[in-house]
């Protein structure tokens, strides 16, 4: 019987983004015989482009921001999140973990298909040979990224080589081929680094092309190696790869002037800040998938019916001279200096989320919207600042607190208009706390906070941080959202294996507590 594969028309459609970021033509809907669907390098490129599109999910940024301490309840909240994520409710039916699991394994399945098809095609020109090899390298990087994402959310301890991660997926599975146990972290890390090493080798053999942040590049592969080694606690290798990206990528940190353009208008220069992002086009604009609509019913503005706002605890950590303040907090916010004693803090203290797609101008409309063919933001997956923060972690692990402070200062200098004082780190705990706090501000609403607390919280002696006004005020009274209900030793720092997996896989092991 001929193999059949369905091109997921019903889920994501088959529009694809080209190098010029224009929509390319699509395949006809339906089920295609594999040999008919993918016959050339260009066909395979279309399939890869569609694989990128399938990964453009806001699920991580949305779940993490609500479950941790990045948001407070918005003045237009009609019950969104207050009975589950905001009050730390998790079980195998929870949407957040299920979305993270499904989106990443869906992408892995497509990457596996691409790798198999790349081996079957018989290119006859040098251009096609290089194109197929580049596609193969990108698929390997995407597969590694998705495995690392699964591992970080679902393992109980990223630094324990024998702890369970997810299920390594490196082949195309038959329809009834379901029963697989979870692999260990050691197996996951070995698999991830093998994929990344193969990809880097392939990239090294290709003609040099201009860098693009919308494709899984050699630089992204190197950054993923730094991230994976950091997660494993191997800071020697983590620092080596972070330094490689810093010194050889050709990228620079965004400045005070250019940082907002990364998140508000997507107009930053190609060599500024962003290592990899998932590109979204205007034709993809939809409330169900726009990044800003994770927190707003409409556009990111006071008229956009915010379900969630910047949490008071996060707001209180921001410095108004820091460009991240104006990027995170909408200028049309209503800031109540007496919020702690307000009888209606939900309406008197409106801290509007500006990141992503907001504005820097009071009274101005936001850049992003929900209208047909309207602006909507790309999803940032890796930025250069992460490499400097990995360097800072590595310096603390090496007992070099001055080196850690220097790495933090590099980021702060780029986010202010003037050079900043060298942070004073009195001991290792204070250093880990400074790094965790810096990551909280730098990566707010990008999906980092859950993993950051999970792996750094104990070292920093710092966990979920919510202001009482966000969970026990007269108009925002959610006592289950008290941070004491999610201590650092909670089993919930390892997400539940979703029912969508356990219902069909009798061999998979559920995490403790669920």
From TrEMBL:
<dbReference type="InterPro" id="IPR011990">
    <property type="entry name" value="TPR-like_helical_dom_sf"/>
</dbReference>
<feature type="domain" description="SusD-like N-terminal">
    <location>
        <begin position="80"/>
        <end position="203"/>
    </location>
</feature>
<feature type="domain" description="RagB/SusD">
    <location>
        <begin position="338"/>
        <end position="514"/>
    </location>
</feature>
<dbReference type="Pfam" id="PF14322">
    <property type="entry name" value="SusD-like_3"/>
</dbReference>
<comment type="similarity">
    <text>Belongs to the SusD family.</text>
</comment>
<keyword id="KW-0998">Cell outer membrane</keyword>
<dbReference type="InterPro" id="IPR012944">
    <property type="entry name" value="SusD_RagB_dom"/>
</dbReference>
<keyword id="KW-0732">Signal</keyword>
<protein>
    <submittedName>
        <fullName>RagB/SusD family nutrient uptake outer membrane protein</fullName>
    </submittedName>
</protein>
<keyword id="KW-0472">Membrane</keyword>
<dbReference type="Pfam" id="PF07980">
    <property type="entry name" value="SusD_RagB"/>
</dbReference>
<dbReference type="InterPro" id="IPR033985">
    <property type="entry name" value="SusD-like_N"/>
</dbReference>
């Amino acid at each position: 019987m001929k193999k059949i594969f369905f091109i997921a028309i019903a889920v994501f459609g088959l529009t694809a983004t080209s190098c010029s970021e224009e929509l390319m033509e699509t395949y006809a809907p339906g089920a295609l015989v594999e040999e008919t669907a993918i016959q050339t390098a260009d066909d395979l490129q279309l399939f890869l482009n569609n694989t990128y599109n399938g990964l453009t999910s806001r699920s991580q940024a949305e779940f993490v921001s609500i479950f941790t301490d990045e948001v407070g309840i918005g003045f237009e909240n009609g019950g969104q999140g207050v009975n589950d994520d905001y009050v730390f409710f998790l079980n195998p039916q929870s949407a957040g973990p299920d979305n993270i699991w499904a989106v990443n394994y869906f992408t892995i399945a497509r990457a596996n298909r691409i790798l198999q098809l790349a081996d079957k095609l018989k290119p006859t020109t040098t251009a096609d040979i290089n194109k197929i090899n580049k596609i193969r390298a990108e698929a390997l990087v995407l597969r590694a990224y998705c495995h690392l994402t699964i591992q970080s959310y679902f393992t109980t301890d990223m630094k324990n080589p024998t702890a369970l991660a997810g299920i390594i997926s490196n082949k195309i599975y038959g329809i009834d081929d379901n029963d697989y146990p979870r692999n260990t972290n050691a197996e996951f890390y070995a698999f991830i680094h093998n994929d990344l090493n193969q990809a880097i080798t392939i990239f090294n053999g290709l003609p040099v092309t201009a860098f693009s942040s919308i494709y899984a590049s050699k630089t992204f592969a190197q950054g993923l190696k730094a991230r994976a080694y950091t997660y494993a606690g191997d800071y020697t290798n983590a620092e080596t790869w972070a330094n490689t990206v810093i010194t050889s990528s050709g990228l620079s940190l965004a400045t005070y002037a250019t940082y907002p353009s990364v998140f508000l208008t997507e107009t930053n220069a190609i060599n500024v800040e962003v290592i990899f992002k998932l590109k979204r086009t205007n034709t993809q604009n939809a409330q169900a998938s726009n990044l800003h609509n994770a927190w707003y019913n409409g556009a990111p503005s006071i008229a956009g019916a915010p379900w969630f706002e910047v949490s008071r605890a996060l707001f209180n950590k921001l410095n108004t001279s820091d460009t991240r303040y104006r990027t995170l907090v909408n200028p049309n916010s209503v800031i109540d200096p007496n919020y702690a004693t307000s009888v209606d803090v939900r309406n008197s203290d409106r801290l509007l989320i500006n990141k992503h797609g907001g504005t820097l101008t009071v009274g101005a409309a936001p850049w992003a919207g929900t209208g047909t063919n309207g602006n909507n933001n790309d999803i940032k997956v890796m930025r250069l600042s992460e490499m400097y923060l990995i360097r800072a972690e590595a310096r603390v692990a090496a007992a070099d607190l001055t080196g850690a402070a220097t790495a933090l200062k590099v980021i702060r200098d780029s986010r202010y208009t003037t050079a900043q004082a060298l942070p004073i780190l009195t001991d290792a705990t204070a250093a880990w706390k400074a790094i965790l706090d810096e990551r909280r501000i730098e990566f707010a609403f990008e999906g980092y906070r859950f993993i950051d607390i999970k792996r750094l919280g104990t070292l920093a002696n710092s966990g979920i941080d919510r202001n009482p006004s966000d969970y026990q005020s007269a108009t925002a009274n959610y006592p289950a959202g008290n941070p004491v209900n999610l201590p650092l030793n909670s089993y919930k720092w390892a997400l539940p294996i979703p029912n969508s997996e356990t219902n069909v896989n009798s061999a998979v092991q559920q995490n403790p507590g669920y």
